[in-house]
C-alpha cells in the first residue's frame, strides 16, 4: 500500500523526534490516525505528537502527564500560518508551558535556519506562560510553524486555532510532497530563501534569472564556491539529513542566468534549493522535483551530478 505524502512526512518527523528523546512521553495512539485525511476534514482532537495541515480548532486534553509534546503545522507554499490559543487550562507555576515557534525545530536544528530567518532565534518563540495577552497568538513567516507544550495535570489542556493567510512572496518553504514544481521570486530584498523537500529527489531547474550572470554551465560546488558566494546573487543546491540549511552539504552553486533544463540528483533525506539575494536585483528561480528513482532518471551527463548522499 502506498503511504500518503503527509504520512511519510509525519513518519520522518517522528523518526527525528525519537532520536532527540521526544517520543519518551508520546502516546502511541496519536500516530495511528491516517494523516492523509488532514487536508479534507477537520480533526478536532489533538495528540501529544501531531501534524496539522488544515484550518480549524483543535483541542488537547491530557489524560496523564505529557512532558514533551509537539504539534507541527504546515500550509501550502504560498501561505503563512496564524496560531491562536484559547480555553487554556494549565498551571505555569507547576512547570506547564505552551510555546509557539516560527518554523520547525527538529533534533536541535531549526527551519528556517538562523541565517535565513528575518528574526533572531529568541524572537521566534511565543511563550504563553511568560507573556500577557500577546502570548496567546502567533504568526509564522513561512508555511510551517510549531507548538511545544508540557502539561502535568490530568484533564488540563487548551484549544489551538489554525488559520492560513496568503503570502505574495513565499520564502523558506517546506514541501508537503516529494514531487511538484515551484518558482521563488525575491524582489529587491537582501534575503535568503530555501525550498526544502524532505525526500531524496531529482531536481530540474527550468529557469534561473539573476542580477549578474557569470558563466553558462552547472559546476559542482567544490569548484565554484568562492566565485558564486562572492557574487551576492546565486542559487545553491544542498543535501543532508537534517532541516537546518546551514548544517547541510553544498552540492552545487549556480550564479548564471539559465533558460532551459538543468538536472541534478540529491539522494539525501532533505534536498534544498536555496536562493541568495543581495537586494540589488529581482531574482527568480523555477524548478521541478520528483522522488529519486535511479532506474528511470534521464541520463544527461553534461547537466547532472552524481548522487550526493547514499540511498538505500
TrEMBL record:
Keywords on record: Disulfide bond, Glycoprotein, Secreted, Signal
Stored InterPro entries: CRF-bd, CRF-BP_C, CRF-BP_N, Sperma_CUB_dom_sf
Domain Corticotropin-releasing factor binding protein N-terminal: 46-165
Residue intervals of the Corticotropin-releasing factor binding protein C-terminal domain: 173-297
Pfam families hit by this protein: CRF-BP_C (PF23541), CRF-BP_N (PF05428)
GO annotation (BP), single: negative regulation of corticotropin secretion
One Gene Ontology cellular component annotation held by this UniProt entry: extracellular space
Keyword Manganese: no
GO molecular-function terms, A-Z: corticotropin-releasing hormone binding
Cellular localisation: Secreted
UniProt superkingdom: Eukaryota
UniProt family annotation: Belongs to the CRF-binding protein family.
Function field: Binds CRF and inactivates it. May prevent inappropriate pituitary-adrenal stimulation in pregnancy.
Protein name in the entry: Corticotropin-releasing factor-binding protein
Amino acid at each position: 500500500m502506498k503511504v500518503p505524502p503527509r504520512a511519510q512526512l509525519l513518519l520522518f518527523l517522528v523518526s527525528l523526534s525519537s532520536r532527540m528523546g521526544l517520543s519518551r512521553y508520546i502516546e502511541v495512539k496519536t500516530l495511528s490516525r491516517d494523516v492523509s485525511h488532514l487536508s479534507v476534514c477537520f480533526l478536532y482532537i489533538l495528540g501529544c505528537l501531531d501534524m496539522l495541515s488544515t484550518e480549524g480548532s483543535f483541542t488537547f486534553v491530557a489524560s496523564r502527564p505529557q512532558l514533551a509534546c509537539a504539534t507541527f503545522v504546515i500550509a501550502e507554499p504560498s501561505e503563512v500560518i496564524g496560531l491562536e490559543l484559547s480555553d487554556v487550562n494549565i498551571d505555569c507555576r507547576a512547570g506547564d508551558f505552551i510555546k509557539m515557534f516560527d518554523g520547525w525545530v527538529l533534533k536541535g536544528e531549526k527551519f528556517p535556519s538562523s541565517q535565513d530567518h528575518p528574526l533572531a532565534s529568541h524572537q521566534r518563540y511565543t511563550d504563553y506562560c511568560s507573556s500577557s495577552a500577546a502570548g496567546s497568538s502567533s504568526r509564522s513567516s513561512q508555511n510551517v510553524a510549531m507548538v511545544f507544550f508540557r502539561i502535568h495535570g490530568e484533564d488540563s489542556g487548551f484549544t489551538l486555532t489554525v488559520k492560513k493567510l496568503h503570502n505574495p512572496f513565499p520564502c523558506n518553504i517546506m514541501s508537503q510532497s516529494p514531487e511538484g514544481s515551484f518558482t521563488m521570486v525575491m524582489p529587491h530584498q537582501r534575503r535568503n530563501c530555501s525550498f526544502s523537500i524532505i525526500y531524496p529527489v531529482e531536481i530540474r531547474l527550468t529557469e534561473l534569472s539573476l542580477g549578474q550572470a557569470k558563466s553558462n554551465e552547472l559546476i559542482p560546488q567544490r569548484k565554484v564556491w568562492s566565485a558564486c558566494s562572492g557574487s551576492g546573487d546565486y542559487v545553491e543546491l544542498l543535501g543532508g539529513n537534517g532541516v537546518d540549511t546551514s548544517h547541510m552539504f553544498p552540492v552545487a552553486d549556480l550564479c548564471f542566468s539559465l533558460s532551459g533544463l538543468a538536472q541534478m540528483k540529491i539522494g539525501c533525506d532533505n534536498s534544498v534549493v536555496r536562493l541568495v539575494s543581495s537586494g540589488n536585483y529581482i531574482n527568480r528561480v523555477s524548478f521541478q522535483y520528483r522522488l529519486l528513482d535511479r532506474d528511470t532518471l534521464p541520463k544527461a551527463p553534461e547537466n547532472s551530478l552524481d548522487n550526493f548522499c547514499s540511498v538505500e
